[in-house]
Each structure stands twice: as C-alpha cells, then as structure tokens.
Amino acid sequence: MPKKGSISVAVVGGNLQGVEASYLARKAGWRVCVIDKNASAPASGLCDYFIQMDVTSTEDLYPALNQIDLVIPALENDDALESLERYTRSKGIPLAFDSRAYNISSSKVKSNRLFEKFDIPLPRPWPKSGFPVVVKPDKGSGSEGVRMFRNYGEMKATFPTLAFTDKWVLQEFVCGPSYSLEVTGIPGKYSSHLITDLEMDPEYDCKRVVAPTDLSPELVAAFNKISIEIAEALCLKGIMDVEIMLHNGVIKVLEVDARLPSQTPTAVYWSTGRNLVEILGQLFVKDYDIYKNKSITERGVVYEHIRVSKDLLEIKGEHIMSGGGPLKVISDFFGADEAITNYDIAKKEWVATLIVSGKDRKNALDRRDSVVDSIVDRYNLDVCDAIPRNSMGGPR
Q1: How many CB atoms lie within 10 A of CB 359?
Q2: Beta carbons within 10 angstroms of residue 167's beta carbon
Q3: Residues 150-192: pLDDT tens digits?
Q4: Angle between helices 264-272 and 276-284 (to 10 degrees)
Q5: What is the model's pLDDT at position 393?
Q6: CA distances from 149 to 5, 132, 172, 244, 395 (A)
Q7: Are residues 257 and 214 in the same domain?
Q8: Is the same domain home to 53 and 76?
Q9: φ, ψ for residue 224 (rounded to 5)?
Q10: Residue 144 domain flag
Q11: Could you tell me the sign of the dihedral formed by the alpha carbons of 356, 300, 26, 16, in that order?
C-alpha cells in the first residue's frame, strides 16, 4: 500500500497524452515511469525512468509493472489497452481506465445513440439538417478524417453511392467558439472542473487553451449540467473530457472522450491548482486520499504551442509537439511560467508549449504577448498565428 503522496505510476504511452500524464504526475510528487515503443517519445524526457517496450507483449509487463501502484493508459491502441487491462486485473494493479465508458465514447455512433436517449444536445443528424453537412468517421479523435460538404455534388464526388454505413456519422455543420470541460468521479458522485476555451489552427487542431472561460454564468451552469448527465449516462469511473461548440448561442456537444485528455488538464492545474491526475490516484488507489476538493481561486492561464524555425515563429496545434523527441520542463522561459520543450540554445529549430499565468484572464493574455515578443525579438522572427478556424466555421 503506497504511503500518502508516494505513488509510483506507470504512464503507458509517451506521446501527447503521455506528456500530460507525466507532467501532472510529477507535479503531484509521484515517481513516474513512462513506457513506449518509441525510444524518442516526447514524454520520455518528463519521467524518472523510461522503458522502451511494446505493451501488447504481456510477458514483458511483469518486470515493468512489478513495483507500480497505478497504471495510467495514455494511448488509444485497442490491443495495448486490452493487454494492460488483462494484466493489471490478473495482478491486482489499479488501472486508471474505464473500458466500458471508453468503448462507448470512442465510437461516435455508439455515443450519439446513448446521448440522444438522454436528450444531450448534439448537432442535428443528416438529412434533417440539410447542407452544409459534416461527415465524421465513427472512430478517431478531434477532426481526424472529418469532411464538410456544401451540397450533394461535393458529397457524391467523395461518396458516389451516398451509401453510408455505421462507420460514419453525418451531422449539421456547426461553427462558433469551442470549450472543454473535464469530469471526474464514480456513478452518483461526480465533480466537474474548470471550463477552458479552445482555439484551433487551420487544420482544426487545438493550438491554444485559455482560462478562465468567457462563457456567461448561465452557459457555464448549462455546460456543467450536461457534462454530469453524460458521466451518469456512461456510468463513468475515472475521468472524461467533454468538448462543445457554441453554435448561434446554443450548446452543441461535439465530442466526449472517457480518458485522460491532453492540454486542458494542465490549464486547469495552473488556473485552479486542481491536479486531475492526482484525482485519478484518489479514485483508483486504495487509501490514497491526498487530494481534497478545496475552494479555489481561478487565475488566468494561456497554454499554447509554438514552433521556431529559420525566421518564423508559428503558433500551431499540438501535433507539432509529437516529432521533437524527448521534452523537458524549463521554468521562466522567456518570461513564461514554464515551457514544455525540446529547446536548446544551439538549436535553430525547436518547439515549445508555453504556460503563462496571471491574476486574471486579461493579465495572462497580456503576459503571453510579452513572452512571444521576447522570443521574436531574441531571434528576429516573423510571427504566423492564423485566425482560429473554429470562429470562421471550420468543420467539427
């Protein structure tokens, strides 16, 4: 049984979810092992020790997980998840994962059917919605594989027979600002956390998270209520993330992921002090109860991704953080509170996730501008920060 605050955690998956889990686990004071097939996985630089292995090979799991108190999956590979679930169940190791809720939320067809049953507000289905229409694959996160068609002609050019199977979801095109909210807990006892505002790059990948939200108190209450209803419908044990779009002033649920998300939990941590990974420890590890839901004061936070190359600073979606090799945390990075980065003074090309806080939202945004100006002035760069596509009506 782990002592208070002394958890040893294995984060399985070293890409973007793994970065999130490892970063927050270290903030909780835990001993962190990252496991990934890729020796240069981004999270491999954010842990106490790294193991390169394929977790679908169960005979290798014993030496890797023998002294582990909690396993956090940070990947979406079905074979790997099934292997972890079988092994941890056989050894009695807590796995911070709800396979039933995940199997529903990872399928847009299954989740939409469930949410319609509970009157969760979704984009209207096609053909009732008319055009433009968005066609989404059943599986996949974010905007992966999503297409938007303005009329029958465009749709038929891609889908000549217009014969859609249950591998596709067709819904009305919605546009507007996007927001995210995490829920943690067990059936009958859920907590919703801080709503964060999302901004997208031209590929519809989230490039910036801002907190606290600019939603009205009425919409904040509505979003919290909807998210708790979704958690109850899923009978969730653990954590999930709900993303909405405010379309013509009306909430539309775009996506639900019953797993630890990337990006927003760190923004929640810097704004409120609530560590969602630490809350997973409270939920899954017996007698681990270090975290308490105390009253909070929301600080302003801006969390965004930049890439510096040649004469340009680009503000892009989080995908740019995947290919930069092992990352590290640097405090007071050009004035940012922290950066998660592969920066080295000798490098001409590097990436960074900037974390900038302030006494309120405006102060954080002002400080963020100063940070970007400092980097631009230091390296004599131009800046490319495209207008968020979701505010222009990008397909979601």
Answers
A1: 11
A2: 11
A3: 998 988 888 887 777 678 888 898 889 999 999 999 999 999 9
A4: 100
A5: 39
A6: 52, 6, 10, 21, 9
A7: yes
A8: yes
A9: -60, -45
A10: yes
A11: negative
Residue range 291-324, pLDDT digits in tens: 555 557 899 999 999 999 989 999 999 999 998 8
The CATH number assigned to the domain holding 60 equals 3.40.50.720
- Bond before 127 cis per omega within 30 degrees: yes
The reply to whether 144 and 205 lie within a common domain is no
pLDDT over 70 at 241, yes or no: yes
- Evaluate the CA torsion angle 113, 117, 122, 124 in order and state its sign: positive
Q: Does the residue 284 lie in any domain?
A: no
Q: Does 187 share its domain with 244?
A: yes
The reported pLDDT for the residue numbered 5 is 53
Structural domain includes residue 268: no
Domain around 204: 113-119+175-261
Domain count, the chain: 4
Hey, which of 108-112, 113-117, 119-123, 336-340 has the most confident mean pLDDT?
A: 336-340
Interval 49-63 mean pLDDT: 89
**14 and 62 housed in the same domain:** yes
Q: How confident is the model at residue 103, as a pLDDT?
A: 95
pLDDT above 60 for 389: no
Beta strands 49-52; 31-36: pairing state: parallel
DSSP track, 132-173: SEEEEESS-STTTT-EEESSHHHHHHHSTT----TTEEEEE-
Mean pLDDT of the chain: 90
DSSP characters over 295-346: ---PPEEEEEEEEEETTEEEE--GGGGSSS-S-EEEEEETTEEEEEE---TT
